[in-house]
Amino acid sequence: MEHITIVRTAGTQWQAVSDGLVVGHGDVAHRPDGRLFVSVDVWQDPAFDRLAAAMLADLPAPLHTLVGAADPELAARWQRFGFTLARREREYVVPTAPGTPVPPPEVTVLPGTQADPGRLGALERAIRQEVDATVGWRTMPAEVVPAPGGSLPLDPGRYTVAVRDGRYVGLVRVVPVRSRARIGLVAVRAGDRRRGIGRTLLAHALGSLHHRGITSAWAEVDESNAAAVTLLEGAGAQRHGGYLELVRE
């Protein structure tokens, strides 16, 4: 193997250097939920193993990485270092649509900017607890986590809330990204599901985006989450690739 030197250039970055030239680099990203995600990008194949070994020696477990579903070679490289499959994630492109959906009886849709911040935070916490008790919050593609002081860093402008009989029972979270938008979360309280509330929230979000001139949104869904897959595909979403999340405990 040619001589390759690994240098940690910053707290979250590494470089592979050969004959004075950078032939690859590695990064670690700290997610808001506390997980560490590593990535390696190389121009010479031998540099991958050297970079990965150096990063794993420096970083605490567990570690995560994302690999394109169509890149089995990269997945195999990480698996050689003890990474295993944690989840399969589908990526969807969802067309926006005009119109204002009619909510189910006894349900109103409230813009997040008009919602009570305390009740919105309480709704998010309740949904988190229900998801944690079943499939686990790790299956959700978007995180809204408590700040160090315990308060929730909610941006009400990104939310739309479903209210039923005066109770906050569901929410959709949308993040604009240039000419598109990301649907980060659609969730309904367990006791209020199967009433069309999720479909209404998603349709409302897509209608609002269309009104703002945004023609499509994207969303990521855990492949095992059949309800979310059905919800998106029912709104006309088309699958557009996907990812594998691998973890090294």
Describe this structure in words.
- There is one protein chain.
- Strand 2 and strand 3 form a beta hairpin.
- The chain folds into two domains: 5-88, Aminopeptidase; 93-242, Aminopeptidase (3-Layer(aba) Sandwich), CATH 3.40.630.30.
- The two termini are 29 Å apart.
- The longest helix has 16 residues, at 117-132.
- An eight-stranded mixed β-sheet has the order 5-12-6-11-10-9-8-7, sandwiched between helices. Strands 1-2-3-4 form a four-stranded antiparallel β-sheet, covered by helices on one side.
- By secondary structure, the chain is α+β, with helices and mostly antiparallel strands.
- The relative contact order is 0.18.
- The chain has five helices and twelve strands.
- 25% of the residues lie in helices and 39% in strands.
User: What is the CATH first-level class name of the largest domain?
Assistant: Alpha Beta
Residue fraction in strands: 35-45%
Helical segment count: 5
Oligomeric status of the shown chains?
Answer: single chain
How far from one another are the termini? Answer: 29 Å
Rg is 21 Å
**Which stretches are low in confidence, meaning pLDDT under 50 for 5 or more residues running?**
142-152
Number of strand elements: 12
**CATH fold name of the largest domain, please?**
Aminopeptidase
Protein name: GNAT family N-acetyltransferase
Keywords: Acyltransferase, Transferase
InterPro entries: Acyl_CoA_acyltransferase, Bact_Acetyltransf, GNAT_dom
Domain N-acetyltransferase: 107-249
Produce the secondary structure layout:
Elements: E1 5-10, E2 13-18, E3 21-30, E4 36-42, H1 45-58, E5 63-68, H2 72-80, E6 84-95, E7 107-111, H3 117-132, E8 159-164, E9 167-177, E10 180-188, H4 197-211, E11 216-222, H5 226-234, E12 238-248
Parallel strand pairs: 10-11
Antiparallel strand pairs: 1-2, 2-3, 3-4, 5-12, 6-11, 6-12, 7-8, 8-9, 9-10
Protein name: GNAT family N-acetyltransferase
Pfam family, one: Acetyltransf_1
Keywords: Acyltransferase, Transferase
